[in-house]
């Protein structure tokens, strides 16, 4: 594997982890509602990618509605789920679902995990379990867990679609523009539903299943800035890099390498949220990143 592929892959994983960090910081602290966060994230990402296309003179936006719907589904479910579950639990469900969906697809294409790659995937997954297990709590609701699992499945579809991309920047820009349009429609529906005092099926921050109250979007400046950072940097540029590197990775490797994201996100929490460094965290980091290395190393 070329050094440039490794560098781009590492950058993309850091961008994915940054998305979890920004989302947790904004939604967990009540700085912004999920609809506004997702809308700002997708719209700012679309604008950033459009500017990149213009600057590099890469032609028109491309992409597909399949990629756009997958991106839209991931972004919406991701924001909703992180309101109601811990970061560790959410990350395990999300990237576990990503791996399962991509490996399931790869199996239908004859790209099976064998030998060193299989060992690496098991070691990486074991590292994640070790990291999350001490902090596992019953999800606030079944719907929240399902939402995060669906987010992972949508991201798996988006990654599979991206493997056929010949123009990663143009495709990512097109996908973001379409997804931003869809999200704008959802935001308008949320806003007018809130104005009318409508309740929709869902969950509240209390434990158990209930009705989710649609509140008028009231984002703070900090919430908007987190959403912009997520859209412009972590999503827009990060996903363009991911689409660039995907054709160079087998589907199973593309799935397994994303298992490193929860560990990177946990490290960001240590550096920026004053979370303590534990032996468990260090061991999990070594296992997960080491397992990912074995998956990449074992590529035929």
Task: Give short descriptive properties of this protein.
300 residues, two-stranded antiparallel sheet, mainly alpha, globular
Structure summary:
The protein has helices spanning 3-27, 34-56, 65-81, 87-108, 115-132, 142-162, 168-195, 221-245, 251-257, 260-272, 279-297, and strands at 199-202, 210-213.
- What is the molecular shape? globular
Q: Can you count the beta strands? A: 2
Major sheet description: 2 strands, antiparallel
Average pLDDT number: 79
Q: What's the SSE pattern?
A: HHHHHHHEEHHHH
The structural domain count equals 1
Strand order of the largest sheet: 1-2
Bin the helical content: over 70%
Per DSSP, the total helix count is 11
Structure, explained:
The chain is mostly helical. It has one domain. The protein is built from eleven helices and two strands; from the N terminus they run H-H-H-H-H-H-H-E-E-H-H-H-H. A two-stranded antiparallel ribbon has the order 1-2. Strand 1 (199-202) and strand 2 (210-213) form a beta hairpin. Helix 1 (3-27) crosses helix 10 and helix 3 packs across helix 7 (168-195). The longest helix has 28 residues, at 168-195. It is globular and about 55 Å long.
């Amino acid at each position: 594997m070329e050094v440039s592929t490794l560098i781009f892959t590492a950058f993309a994983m850091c961008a994915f982890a940054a998305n979890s960090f920004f989302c947790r910081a904004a939604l967990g602290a009540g700085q912004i509602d999920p609809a506004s966060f997702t809308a700002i994230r997708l719209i700012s990402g679309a604008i950033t990618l459009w500017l990149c296309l213009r600057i590099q003179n890469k032609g028109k936006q491309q992409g597909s509605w399949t990629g756009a719907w997958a991106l839209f589904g991931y972004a919406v479910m991701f924001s909703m789920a992180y309101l109601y579950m811990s970061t560790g639990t959410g990350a395990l469900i999300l990237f576990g679902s990503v791996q399962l969906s991509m490996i399931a697809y790869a199996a239908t294409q004859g790209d099976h995990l064998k030998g060193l790659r299989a060992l690496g995937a098991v070691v990486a997954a074991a590292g994640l379990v070790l990291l999350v297990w001490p902090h596992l709590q019953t999800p606030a609701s079944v719907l929240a867990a399902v939402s995060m699992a669906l987010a992972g499945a949508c991201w798996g579809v988006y990654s599979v679609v991206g493997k056929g991309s010949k123009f990663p920047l143009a495709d990512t820009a097109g996908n973001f523009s379409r997804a931003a349009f869809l999200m704008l429609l959802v935001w308008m529906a949320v806003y007018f539903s809130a104005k009318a005092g409508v309740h929709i099926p869902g969950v509240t921050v209390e434990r158990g299943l209930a009705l989710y109250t649609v509140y008028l979007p009231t984002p703070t400046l900090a919430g908007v800035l987190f959403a912009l950072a997520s859209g412009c940097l972590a999503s827009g540029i990060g996903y363009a890099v991911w689409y660039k590197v995907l054709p160079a990775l087998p589907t199973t490797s593309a799935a397994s390498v994303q298992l490193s994201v929860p560990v990177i996100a946990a490290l960001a929490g240590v550096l920026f949220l004053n979370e303590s460094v534990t032996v468990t965290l260090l061991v999990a980091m070594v296992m997960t990143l080491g397992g990912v290395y074995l998956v990449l190393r074992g590529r035929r």
